[in-house]
């Protein structure tokens, strides 16, 4: 073999070995380089086809209601802050904005409880226990005021 063919052959074998090594690394732990999504709840709860269909139907309207209400909460929160820090403080406006925000937050809770009851009706006993554990493990977000005042 001449030098050119030997060099080409060595380059090819080196690239082949590197490819094999990368494949092994990828198979063992390379997935850490990707951004894996958390398992879908339906997969975690091991839904059957009927449950998947029911879940999606229940979830569709819920997500729309939730989004609309969250937008309202954000707007009313801003209105409350504006009223509190207005150049001329009008306590009636502050109280009115506070009551409107409380009403929207109450509606949010009603939407969430209604959805949980709909989901409960779809689930088996084992699935209900799994979902309950997931929900209990979730932390309640601390208020923005608490975050601002932490040392």
Task: Please give a structural write-up.
There is one protein chain. The chain has 151 residues and is mainly alpha-helical. It has two domains: 3-33; 41-138, Four Helix Bundle (Hemerythrin (Met), subunit A) (Up-down Bundle), CATH 1.20.120. The chain contains six helices and no strands. The protein has helices at 3-28, 41-44, 49-84, 91-122, 125-137, 144-149. Helix 3 packs antiparallel against helix 4. The longest helix has 36 residues, at 49-84. It is flat. It starts with a helix and ends with a helix. 3% of the residues are buried. The model is unreliable at 31-38 (pLDDT under 50).
Annotate the secondary structure layout.
Layout: H1 3-28, H2 41-44, H3 49-84, H4 91-122, H5 125-137, H6 144-149
Helix pairs in contact: 3-4
Key features?
151 residues; mainly alpha; Four Helix Bundle (Hemerythrin (Met), subunit A); 2 domains
Any idea what the CATH architecture of the largest domain is?
Up-down Bundle
* Largest beta-sheet characterization: none
CATH class descriptor of the largest domain: Mainly Alpha
Order of helices and strands: HHHHHH
Number of helices in the DSSP assignment: 6
User: Structural class per helix/strand content?
Assistant: mainly alpha
The separation of the N and C termini measures 73 Å
In short:
77% of the residues lie in helices and 0% in strands. By secondary structure, it is mostly helical.
